[in-house]
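Troubleshooting entry. The earlier prediction with pyridoxal-5'-phosphate gave an output that would not parse, so I re-checked the input for stray whitespace and re-submitted. Clean input:
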Amino acid sequence: MKQFNTVSIKELAHRFKLDPASLTDVANIYPCRISRYYAGLITAPGDPIWKQCVPSAEELNDTLQHPDPLDEERLSPIPCLIHRYADRVVLLVSNHCATYCRFCMRKRRIGHSGTDCFDLNAAVDYISDSPRIRDIILSGGDPLMLSDEELEDILQRLRMIPHVEIIRIGTRMPVTEPSRITPELCRMLARYHPLFLNTHFNHPLELTDESADACKMLADSGVSLGNQTVLLKDVNDSSMVLMKLFSGLLRLRVRPYYLHQMDLVQGTAHFRTPLVCGSQLIDSLRGRISGMAIPHFVIDLPGGKGKVAVLPENLHKNGSNWLLKNFSGELISYADP
Ligand SMILES: *Cc1c(COP(=O)(O)O)cnc(C)c1O
């Protein structure tokens, strides 16, 4: 596993004159790791970078929600392989990241020891035996926590399966540790096209020269770049912030793909916005910036019911709950917490 230069809680607390105990109490439950690079983007406690990576006591107050609301464990026929849609699977190839997001959808497992369960042989066997699978998503944790050699081993084995058409990598390295994107990595990736890479910028403060260089290198290698933003209360739930973020990404040749409603994951309630918020924000961008810069606002329905684009016309109220129609035509109820 790759090791990056990180800041300790002690150092962070010292730098911002805080009591480290308030942070370690939370980090004992939900691990904390912040790369030195990403910590360097913090300007003051409570700013949009801080909120994304520094533990908060609010994480421990959220006991109503579920550790695995998307039912990923139930949808895993073998450990670390999530198969929800007929034609695509998610492989959890690493259980670590350069920086742990406080709003992580896999907060239940990421960064905890003993949860690394990816078995390449088992995954290759499963996919080889499932001819309908044509799209593989490498996720985690962060797949780029693996060395170039480990990652190449996975890509090579997947590419040998005749029915696998595209491979996608989900990684936050261009945002949290851009130095991980090297010419060697890009040369290796270019051997496994068609390859897509979805990264995860949430705020214009993350659009630095270093991250721009990382995206440029990837794009120049022919990797199609997309971005998945998570809508976060008091971080990016503003039309102006999203406008700057999405148009900035397009300039880096990164196409905004999804804006995600925060999943109902235990420990993340303080980040969640009401469902209409995202839909209104997307509406507010329409016509004001290039359509290329506007992602789909999606919600991943609880119970593993799938992602649904939240459009004003498919939002229906049933009492105090929303009803959303999923990809198989089921009407699923969603209650704003
Ligand atoms: C999000 C997700 C996918 C990919 O969905 P797309 O809409 O194709 O990007 C696939 N499988 C699972 C389990 C997912 O959560």
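This one parsed fine. The first strand starts at residue 6 and ends at 7.
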